[in-house]
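One such shown below:

_____
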Amino acid sequence: MTIKRKQKNCLNCKQDYISCGQNQKYCYPCIPHMRYSYGKEHFPKTMYSRKYRKMVILMLGSRCKNCHNLNENVLEIDHVNNDGASHKRALGRGTYYMLRWIIANNFPDSIRILCYNCNCVRNTLGYCPHEREQELIAKQNSEILPL
């Protein structure tokens, strides 16, 4: 199968270029610039999503609930009861609306912050090893020091 290449006019810089795809509207030097400006102009929700995500993470402790990881780039918002997908479906929208719901409902206890590793292991095994360690330590401490 051969790719049909056509001579087109770039919508940004108005120069001629050879197109590789049927939906290509910009020359190669203009593509990164147009993607960036297109995202800023037409999708302001992404900017607010980042702002709301930072706010939710800050209000919920700014670290993983299980392993106390402080790296904001790996922190995720987790539903304690594993009902995140059904909750998102009930809202009928994406992450932006989920974050706004969390803020509007005053950061409910059913939401917590986990790092990527703890969240993946929890989804795979059904529990996080760090949770089990904390439970064992708490049990040992209660046996040693009865109240």
